[in-house]
Amino acid sequence: MNDHLSNSKESIHTVTTFQEARLQHSENLRQNIVHAAAALLQEHGPEAVTVRRVAERMECSTKIIYNLFGKKEGLAKYLYLEGCTLLSQSFEAVPQQASYQQHFRALALAYWNFGMTQSSFYQLMFGGSFAEFKPDAESLEGTATALKQLTNLVEAAKGQGLLREDDSLLAIQMIWAPLHGVIHLYLGGHIESEEAARRLYDHTLSMIVQSLFETDM
Question: Looking at the whole model, is its pTM more than 0.85?
Fold first, then answer.
C-alpha cells in the first residue's frame, strides 16, 4: 500500500497543467516555424523569408505567425539566434590544439566554413540582409555566446603572456573585423572566386597571428 501511495505522489508531480501544455505547444510551434523560415532562408535567400511564404510552408494561417512573433522583425530575431546557435556549435566542434596559434587558426577555419556553408545565416547576422531588423540586447548576447570559444582563447593566451594586446575586447575586434571583411566582400561579389577569397583569408589570418600572438610552440 505504501508503494501505491508513493507511486501516486510521483504521478501527481508529473501532471502537466493545461497552461504548461499550452506553453509547451506554443514553444514547439515556434521552433517549427523558425525551422521552416530557416529552410527558406538557406534555399532562397533573405528575400524569400516573408510571413506569407513561411505560413505556406507550414500550412498554417499568417495570423498564427503574427501571434507568435509579431511582425517579420520578430521572426528575423529568432533566425538570428538560430544562426548564433549554429555558429556556436561550429566553434564547439573544434578540437583542442597543441598551441594557442593552432587553436586560433582552427577556430578561424570554422568561422570561414560557417560563412560558406551557412551564408544566408551569416548575411542575416553580420551582413544586414534583413534591413528592417536591428539586433537587440538579447541578439547581441547570442552573438557573444557564439563567439565564446574565441573569447576564451584570447583570455587564456593573455593569461599566459602570449597575447600582445592588453585589451581583450580590442584583440577580439582586431581578429573579427578583418576576417569578417574578407567573407563579407566575397559574399557580396567583390572577390572573383571562393579560391581567391580563401587565399586572402589565409593571408589575413597569418597577419593577425603575427601581430597578436607570441609563439607558444
Answer: no
